[in-house]
Amino acid sequence: MVIVVWLQVGYAMVLLSTAIKNVPDETLEAARIDGASEFKIFFLIILPQMLGTIITVFVTVFIMVMKIFDIVYVMTNGNFKTNVIANMFFQELFVQRNAGKASAIVVILLIAVLPVLIFQVRHFRREEAER
User: Fold this and answer.
1) What is the pLDDT of residue 127?
2) What's the confidence (pLDDT) of residue 43?
3) Does 68 have pLDDT greater than 90?
4) What is the dihedral of CA 100, 103, 104, 110, to 10 degrees?
5) Contact by Cβ (8 Å): 59, 46
6) Which domain holds residue 15?
7) Are residues 115 and 87 in the same domain?
8) Who's near 86: CB < 8 A, 6+ residues apart?
């Protein structure tokens, strides 16, 4: 877990920091003049303008977590209750020589990732249509 956080936090923070800095100062100033609290400014102005970046960071981190085979394999090889779905696939296919169960595991992985990918594609198309 610490390794994954170490790998992803820098990437996520750079993107999210850039997104916050890209919120126009005029918009924030107008909200303050209208009497909006800092809480409302953050949740009603800043977050909606950062939504595309937040989704991108989420999808990138989600995909990385779903394919985290290498770190788990090198560190523990699935011992100590650290097994992940990609490691299960590897164990079934190459260690136990059970191609049927291994392919079923990959189909489950595909089903788990597919909704996120569909969401990302739809969001990207919506953003492109707004431009």
Assistant:
1) 83
2) 95
3) no
4) -170
5) no
6) 1-50
7) yes
8) 66, 67, 68, 69, 72, 109
